[in-house]
Amino acid sequence: MPDLLPWAWVALGAAAVTIGISKTALPGGSTLAIALFASVLPARTSTAAMLLLLIVGDVFALISYRRHAHWPTLLRLAPAVVLGLLAGFAFLALAGDGIVRRAIGVILLVMIAVTLWRRSRPTTPSPRGNLLLAGTYGTLGGFTTMVANAGGPVMSMYFLATRAQVMTFLGTSAWFFAIVNIVKVPFLAGLGLFPGPVLLMDAVLAPLVVIGALIGLRIARRIDQRLFDRIVIGLTIVGAVYLLF
């Protein structure tokens, strides 16, 4: 078990609950969890440790929304996502913890900036068959999810641009991240990022992801989304700035 201070365990526990809630109720909310994990653990270790917990959350997302995926969209994304995953893997293999840590901070700030920009503009849907759109978002989504598990905001923008309805959005997103996260496991394992202490830590935190997912299912239609988003964005900015400096 990693030798962490009590405050660090509290931060990781809060992150685990946030992962569960984000998977079943608030897509994109996991950016706060990314910042918390990377603030407590070495950068590359945080990416690997969080991946296993995200997969636990993916199970609940699939149970809830598995029947609503739009498979042509997923197939159109596949080539670009693979390219992005390979680029992200090369970056993780070559970069040290310090560089990866700062990269995570930059990625989080960029994702927040783009998300805020998107929300400030009226939705301008693009044709579902736009291969350039799929290529751009797919490559960026693959890279960011491999390096920092931060592909959520990128892919959310893509699904909105393809005119996806709410349930289609949730179902397609659930299948996308379930598949991509499983594909990432052997890559990170090949880098030696799943030692025994990390697996044991995740075993302790996994029940909190389950609790968060169940909470998310209950509050999905009750929570004030705007307030929650503002809190998540604010705390994530603080976490990202901390990672940078």
Automatic annotation (TrEMBL):
Coiled coil: none
Stretches that traverse the bilayer: 6-26, 77-96, 103-120, 140-161, 173-194, 200-220, 227-244
UniProt keyword terms in alphabetical order: Cell membrane, Membrane, Transmembrane, Transmembrane helix, Transport
Membrane topology type: Multi-pass membrane protein
Major subcellular location class: membrane
Gene Ontology terms: cellular component: plasma membrane
Alphabetized InterPro entries for the sequence: TM_pro_TauE-like, TSUP
Record's subcellular location: Cell membrane
Similarity remark: Belongs to the 4-toluene sulfonate uptake permease (TSUP) (TC 2.A.102) family.
Name of this protein: Probable membrane transporter protein
